[in-house]
């Protein structure tokens, strides 16, 4: 049984998207007629030849997990209760304990089963599927179209992109398929899927590419292919083919109110999957590049405040003290616009680009700092080694209490009383916000009392006078916005652009 895509992500918030087993709200789409392009390729007369060529490499995945079932204890009923015998018989029949039963009685085991799809990529017995198809299974079988069932071992798996690589042993070479270049796909291209919908066995469906680069908030590297090819419960882990019989995607999730296909399915692109599969085969684990920064998106107001010209890039909101970015000279407030020769159009592009870069590689990072474009060279670390590193916190000192108003905020210098009142981190430095006007732009941006302004337009502030002075300076320069670096009481920072007009 497939699981929701939202359960595979960091369950920080509910997702509208589910794995191929699940269901959610869907929007009705109205089709409109458009003129046919004269040079467009017509639909194939049949997909039969293509299906016959590749079906032998598509397999069903059966995964079983053995878990301990809790013993049930019969409620302590008073002697002579009319239903005492009935309860005793009911619980004993199910392996539970009656009154006076031993607490040390052995627990029963229960098996949980799931079905999905996969495909062979190497005739020696290498099989690819979704991580959520196998989960924590301790018994995995791969079932071939001719009915052959082979036990599988896990070579490696990756929950962030929902991939798993399995190995089976066969007496003969297996039919295998190869990956194609998913970057060449265009919306409207024909594709074909083969999988195990609803446990029926190998089924073929066809459709077109609906869109590329979809972000369904299932993980940090979302870059899905959207297709109207029918993807249903049990199709997860199966291949999405182009018309040359190459795998250009791995079917992973659908948007549906019923668990059945409504023409909105999502596949991991081959360009994303192949490097991960290669790492899992070689190392048994992923080895992603790591920059050691915390980023946020650049909106129009932030772009204006930073004099970027247009909203682009990834704004550095924090730097890991032990990460590769710090010794390379990257700073909070820098906007990364290009990484290793690849343009960073928005913040979500950067994690995907960095993660796909080799560990230990020296890369050029182009940044915009105070309206100047600079290039820094960074030697990438390994993400898996740095995931538990704490975010860098700014040093601090105490300042006297002085209160002022600016931008709809009441501001005070940090003192011991305010530090206790708002439970501020001991080393947090800046100007504390003691009140937010509910009708102000600051309230709309969710600034709250107890937060601390660390910088104004990339200049450190330690007193309310520093804040008002910087704002007046910005006004005199004809600037429309002030970029605040705001920390919560725990010291976690973010950038907020506020109008100074």
From TrEMBL:
Residues 94-114 are annotated as: Disordered. Residues 1-38 form the signal peptide. SUPFAM superfamilies: PDZ domain-like, Trypsin-like serine proteases. It is found in: Periplasm. The keyword Metal-binding does not apply. The active site is at 132 (charge relay system), 162 (charge relay system), 236 (charge relay system). This is Probable periplasmic serine endoprotease DegP-like. It comes from Microvirga brassicacearum.
